[in-house]
TrEMBL record:
InterPro entries: Cyt_c-like_dom, Cyt_c-like_dom_sf, Cytochrome_c-type_DH. This is Cytochrome c class I. It comes from the Bacteria. Residues 99-188 form the Cytochrome c domain. Gene3D superfamilies: Cytochrome c-like domain. Keywords: Heme, Iron, Metal-binding, Signal. The lineage of its organism: Bacteria, Thermotogati, Deinococcota, Deinococci, Thermales. The keyword Transferase does not apply. Residues 1-17 form the signal peptide. GO terms for molecular function: electron transfer activity; heme binding; metal ion binding. The keyword Iron applies.
Amino acid sequence: MKKGILIALLLAGLAVAEELPKGPGVDLVYAKCQICHDLTYPLQNAGLSEADWEGIVDDMIDYGAPINEEERAAIIKYLATYLGPNPPPAEEAAASEAPAGVDGKAAYAANCAGCHQAEGQGVPGAFPPLKGNPVLVKDATYPALVVLFGLQGKIEVNGAAYNGAMPPLGHLDDATVAALVNYLLQEFNEELLPKDFKPLDAATVAELRKKALTPKQVQAFRQKLLNGE
């Protein structure tokens, strides 16, 4: 039964998911589950038991999803709580998620480190490095666009080729996107930053969000940066 549920989940990736309910762990679900598919299936099948969600998550791990034990527990808890048989009211869920502040390092760990690794070194042939990545510092709006809208197509980083797709993380609020991008630029690429570098703020991210780009358009913007346009 678990395999059948998982197959349905993967096939559902052809559709576009709505936003997941707010709650602790939602960012982790977005980050880990969207690596291979979107989130239409969980929304359409809200009400599954904790045991069913646990089986689905374990099958994802068997298929190669980069989820450690701590993340596994948090994802299952979120799915069982907010997409289980008795989810809390929306107002209560939103209140429980409200953060005390925005931590760029924590945002990176929750949304990016699973693929790009804790130190931004990436995975050769699969996920490009963010550390020592010169295109990221050409224009700070570029990594923000990647976070907001995703990236798809062939790219080259430090002589290595990659051809994959990064899912958009547009569910993150403007302040979190700004903090995440500032962290990866200043933590992983400090020596490459121009002297006049100014950290992104939430207002800038809000304006970028209005562009509503496709992943392919973000790739085209990247190429223009490389061409010096």
